[in-house]
Amino acid sequence: MAAKRVVSDYNITAGIYEARYSEEQETKIGFLLTRLRPEEEALVLDVGCGTGMLLERLKGGRNCVGIDPSISMLLEARRKGCRAELILADADHIPVRSGVSDYVFSVSVLQLLEDPAKGAREMLRVLKRGGWVGISALLKSFTGESLKAAFGIADGEAYDSETVKDAFLIAQKP
């Protein structure tokens, strides 16, 4: 579960979030989407979707589900015209059936969770066998290799980017 203070901060800053962080977040999203390209019919889950920036890049949100614990961030996503299904929930209690998602993305969220390993397990739980994860987390909290360990994935691509100060994991669920 995200700390109450973190959720409160995002509720307060939702209206200015993109003005502050869109360039940084778009770089991370671009990095993930150059490596994972969901098919038109794929079901995509964005855990910690915030204002919906990744969802907008994916078919305008069709066949996508965004999950975030901040009601203000979800309302901002909707105000901007995000067409994805948006769900108010925490990353460590994703209210989605097991094994239904073709892709799970999460951009700079794990380090905000009280139990990042629990969040990783939840993301894998909702992912189909053979589905793909595209994850980033702040480099001060994770490395690409420690993301692999958190997700319990031996294979996959792990990256550490000093430029964007994030670690990345691109991997397929066995």
How would you describe what is shown here?
The protein has 174 residues and is α/β, with parallel strands linked by helices. It has a single domain, classed as Rossmann fold. 36% of the residues lie in helices and 25% in strands. The protein is built from 6 helices and 7 strands; from the N terminus they run ααβαβαββαβαββ. The protein has a 7-stranded mixed sheet with strand order 3-2-1-4-5-7-6, sandwiched between helices. The chain is globular. The mean pLDDT is 92.
How would you summarize the topology of this molecule?
Layout: H1 4-13, H2 17-35, E1 44-47, H3 53-57, E2 64-68, H4 71-79, E3 85-88, E4 101-107, H5 116-126, E5 127-138, H6 144-151, E6 157-161, E7 166-172
Parallel strand pairs: 1-2, 1-4, 2-3, 4-5
Antiparallel strand pairs: 5-7, 6-7
